[in-house]
Predict the 3D structure of the following.
Amino acid sequence: EIVLTQSPGTLSLSPGEGATLSCRASQSVSSSYLAWYQQKPGQAPRLLIYGASRRATGIPDRISGSGSGTDFTLTISRLEPEDFAVYYCQQYGSSVTFGGGTKVEIK
Amino acid sequence: QVQLQESGPGLVKSSETLSLTCSVSGDSISSNKYYWGWIRQPPGKGLEWIGSMYYGGTTYYNSSLKSRVTIYEDTSKNQFSLKMTYVTAADTAVYYCARLPVVGTAIGAFDIWGQGTMVIVSS
């Protein structure tokens, strides 16, 4: 089973700042089958990025994904109030596993 | 607009069987373009994939849950269901159903989710 480790656990930032979230896999994720989700309290997760770098429908271009192999990054260039949430990475190249999440909170 | 809606008992007794149904509108679970899956989230914790199915009965399960889980379809009602046997308090969670697009010969990410349903396992 591929284990995904997300860091940091919590990111305290102000609106307008940039955010960089990391997701590291215990083994290479085949064909960059890596996704990122955003989850707000009481809501279902929302798909942001798939295929490591492809934005899902309706996702603004200030949110971007990058990486390959075992190291992946989600970048939010300028935090808007609606971006404060928990973010999960997920690999779907070998079975399905999720990372433990990174909380982006208002500083 | 595709929508998924989970339904089922909110309270299940320990050692009994949890049964949930996902009703799909705006799309067909018999489509060859999608898989359909279940994910759960214990209170205050992260996400755990339970399993996924393709029309016709192809299924894939989380190895840690495989012995207790069955996912199956009811195409006449455009629904798919989850059955989990011998539940314990550790199975208390919000249960989500979701859609997964087929990408070439692979399965994609969960692109549409239901709102989730809370299931509490009581002793």
